[in-house]
Amino acid sequence: MMRVKLFYFAKVREALGVDREEIDLVSSIETVADLVDFLKSRGSVWHTTFSEVSSIRMAVNQEIVEDGHAIRANDEVAFFPPITGG
Amino acid sequence: MTVHIQEGLFDLYTIAQKLKKLHNSGASVTFEGYVRDFDLEQDKLDVLELEHYPGMTEKALLDIELLASQRWNLDDVYIVHRYGKLKVGEPIVGIIVFSKHRKEAFEACHFIIDFLKTDAPFWKKEITNQKSYWVEAKKLDDEEKKKWN
Q: Could you tell me which of A17, A69, B59, B117 has the fewest CB atoms within 10 Å of its CB?
C-alpha cells in the first residue's frame, strides 16, 4: 500500500463534491491511468467525470503529466479541467 | 523575477515605477488583463470567480518567467495574478518586462501571457444574475502558445 494525496479543482471538484483526500493505493496501481480507472469504479458520478478524457488534466507534484506517468508514495496528484486563467 | 498571487487589487503603474528604479533598462512593456462586462452568451456579468491551485500556480508562473529569460535578454520580469471574486472592470493579471531594448520586452511580454493562458492553473467561473458556469478553455489559446515553438 502507498499513501497519496489527491486534489480536485474547479468543475471536477464541484462534480465530485470533494476537494482533497488522502488514500492508500493497492500495489496494482502504478500509473496515473491506473489511478483514474480506480476512481472511475467509485460510482456513476466518478465514472462520468473521469470518462470525459478531453476535459481532465492531471498534475503529479504540481507538474502537468500524461496518464502513463508513474505514481510513487506520498505523491500529490491533482485532477482539473483545462486551464482558463489570464 | 517575481510572482505575486493575491486576492486584492493591484496598481501596475506604481509597481512598474518602483521596479524601474532597480534597473538600468532601456525599455519596459506591461500587459494588463481586465474582467469584461459580458459573458460568452452576452449576458451581463456580475462577478468573475477565479479558482487556482496554490503552490502549483506560483511554480508554473516562475517556470514561464524562466523560459522567457532564457529566450530573451531581460533585466526583470514581474507577474501578478488575482484569484477569488472579481468585479467587472477590475484587473485580473499584470505583467511587466524590463530589457535593454524594446524588441525583447515586447516579444517576452507576449510570450508570457500566451504561456500563462495555457500553463498556469487558474479556472474562471462566470456569474450573471441568471446563472453561473465554468468558462471552457479556448482552442485558440493552445494555438497561440504553439506559435512560439
A: A17
Q: pTM value?
A: 0.93
Number of domains in chain A: 1
ipTM score for this prediction: 0.93
CATH code (residue B76): 3.90.1170.40
Residue A85: inside a domain = no
Q: What is the pLDDT of residues B30-79, one digit of tens each?
A: 999 999 887 666 678 889 999 999 999 999 999 999 999 999 999 999 99
| CA A7 and chain centroid, separation | 7
- A7 falls within a domain: yes
The DSSP symbol for B93 reads E
Question: Could you say which of B59, B81, B136 has the minimum Cβ distance to residue A62?
Answer: B59
- Strand pairing category for B84-87 and B74-82: unpaired
Set of chain A residues whose Cβ sits within 8 Å of the Cβ of B5: none
Q: In angstroms, rounded to a whole number, what is the distance separating the alpha carbons of residues A50 and A77?
A: 14
Q: Do B55 and A80 touch (CB under 8 A)?
A: no
In contact, B128 and B87? CB cutoff 8 Å: no
